[in-house]
Amino acid sequence: MAETTANSTTATPAQKAATTRKTNATKRSTAAKKGAATRSATRGAAARSTATRKTKATVSRAETSAAKKAAAAKAETKSTVGRAAEYAEKAVLVPVGATLMARDAVIETVEDLRAKYSTRTKAEQQLRRFERRGSSAVKGIERDAKKTRTRIERELKKVRKAPVVKNAELVTARVENAVQSGRTAATKASTTVQERIASLA
Predict the structure, then answer these.
(1) Cα–Cα dist 89/94, whole Å
(2) What mean pLDDT, rounded, does the chain reach?
(3) What value, to the nearest 5°, has the Cα angle with vertex 34 and ends 32 and 37?
(4) Is residue 52 in a domain?
(5) Residue 128, Cβ density class (10 Å: 0-12 exposed, 13-18 middle, ≥19 buried)
(6) Average pLDDT in the 75-100 region?
(7) pTM above 0.70, yes or no
(8) How far apart are CA 51 and CA 59, in angstroms?
(9) Structurally, how many domains does the chain consist of?
(10) I need a surface site. Which of 45, 57, 80, 83 has the fewest CB within 10 A?
């Protein structure tokens, strides 16, 4: 009996290999099942996420469409009387606002003038400032006038020098033309006279 117990506790190499194969197969099967379950869960989550996004987009489009319809309905309900009331209100408010702004500008100007000229010293300071400003403006104008005058004088000198030569040439040409015309006229006159004399003879 001792021999039977020893045989049952020690496994043969074939049994060990079979046990190892069976264990490995079980492990692979378990891993495959877990992977399939994970993939299935991921697909399900993705499908739910897509469905949620589509639902939200549909709801958003419906809300936008409803808002547009409500705005259109509100615009349609605005009647001619309502628009006339708005125009009448604007017609009253615009002149009132313009008057108030003009009043504010006048008050601001008066306050500014009072601050500048409230005492004799301040008034004299302002007058001196005006004088300096006027003096600098006049000097600038005089400077510009002198520059312009100098430039024009230079241009006139250039123009006067150039035409003298051109005018001399022009006068010479005219004199030559006049002399030539005189010669031609004299030749014609002498020819005419000779012909008349010849015809008389």
Answers:
(1) 9
(2) 79
(3) 110
(4) yes
(5) exposed
(6) 80
(7) no
(8) 12
(9) 1
(10) 80
How far is it, in rounded angstroms, from Cα 64 to Cα 76?
18
Contact assessment for residue 11 and residue 19, using Cβ atoms and an 8 Å cutoff: yes
C-alpha distance from residue 3 to each of 7, 13, 136 (Å): 6, 18, 134
Rounded Cα–Cα distance for residues 33 and 22 (Å): 16
Residue ranges making up the domain that contains 54:
33-62
Confirm whether 98 is domain-assigned.
no
Q: How far is CA 31 from the centre of its chain?
A: 65
Query: Position 148: which residue type?
Result: T
Residue 48 lies in a domain: yes
Q: Which amino acid is at 168?
A: A
Amino acid identity of 63? E
User: Is position 91 within any domain?
Assistant: no
Q: Rounded to a whole number, what is the largest CA-CA distance in the chain?
A: 194
Q: Which two tokens stand for residue 18?
A: 């079979």
